[in-house]
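ok so i was messing around last nite and threw this chain in just to see what happens. nothing serious, just curious
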Amino acid sequence: MRRTPAWAVAAACVMAAALLYVGAVAHLVDLVQHGLYPYGWAPTWLNLYWTSLAVLDPLAAVLLLGGRRRGADLACAIMVTDVAANWYAVYGIQHSGLLAEPGLQRLTIFALYAVVVTPFLRKHLSA
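result:
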């Protein structure tokens, strides 16, 4: 993978950053409209986690766009924990399922993308 073209690395970083910004906007809107606890049905810790993504998502995106490994690592960590939190919310709290939740489907696909792409990106990003 050392021969990965620079444009492919840049494209992967830009795509991940764009998706992180989409998430950040969603979390910012929830924060502005509903405060720190936007989901009355969710426990406090889950509300605070999702609210923290209003800061963490754009931070990871900025680091990624700056060509930093920390951005890829943070994006991967965010996506793994976010998908786990959302799966818990959907299955454990709302008693729903993946097929009934398009948002969870998209989030899961992005998390898989982050987990698969991050090891390859790290080789091309600066510390």
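not much to say yet. The longest helix spans residues 6-34.
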